[in-house]
Specification:
This protein has about 150 residues and is an alpha+beta fold. The chain is built from 4 helices and 8 strands. The strands form 2 sheets. The protein has a 6-stranded mixed beta sheet with strand order 4-3-8-7-6-5. Strands 1-2 form a two-stranded antiparallel ribbon. Strand 1 (about 25-30) and strand 2 (about 35-40) form a beta hairpin. The longest helix has 15 residues, at about 90-105.
């Protein structure tokens, strides 16, 4: 079965309720071999609460400018891909968080999320000191051992 033939909602986390009429496809994320189709939900607020605590902790720390707390959400060997650059390991990720915070003062408002197993896509409205602010971005997470192992922003 090809990726196009299978339902993108087939293996979603328990507790999420989906109705085909409430969604339309608008993009996709690729993380470590996982594939998701992002959907815009007619009432998105409930889906944000289904994100794992470590992802919610990351967004809260990043919004508050708590660089060390945001960095602590990542695994030692984690990888972040943002603006066509990779940041590997906690030291590089800490530098990315600090630089991004200082340069752009970003604030995220979570809009919706979808996930399966250890992979999640959170869509957020990001505002700050950058051209095109605010922008709606996807944050594609892969988790391992209750930490963020990979994050792709785009």
């Amino acid at each position: 079965m090809s990726r196009r033939d299978r339902s993108p909602f087939r293996d979603l986390a328990d507790g999420l309720t989906f109705r085909w009429g409430a969604y339309f496809f608008v993009g996709s994320c690729h993380l470590d071999g996982s594939w998701f189709t992002r959907a815009t939900m007619s009432s998105p607020s409930d889906s944000v609460t289904t994100l794992p605590p470590i992802i919610l902790d990351y967004f809260a720390a990043a919004n508050d400018g708590r660089i060390d707390d945001a960095t602590a959400c990542f695994a030692e060997d984690a990888r972040v891909h943002d603006e066509s650059r990779d940041h590997v390991g906690q030291a590089a990720i800490r530098e990315w968080v600090a630089d991004t915070t200082q340069q752009f003062q970003p604030k995220t408002e979570l809009l919706r999320a979808i996930g399966s197993n250890d992979s999640f896509v959170a869509t957020a409205r990001v505002s700050g000191n950058f051209p095109g602010s605010p922008a709606e971005l996807d944050f594609c997470f892969t988790l391992a051992d209750e930490r963020i192992a990979a994050l792709s922003v785009g």
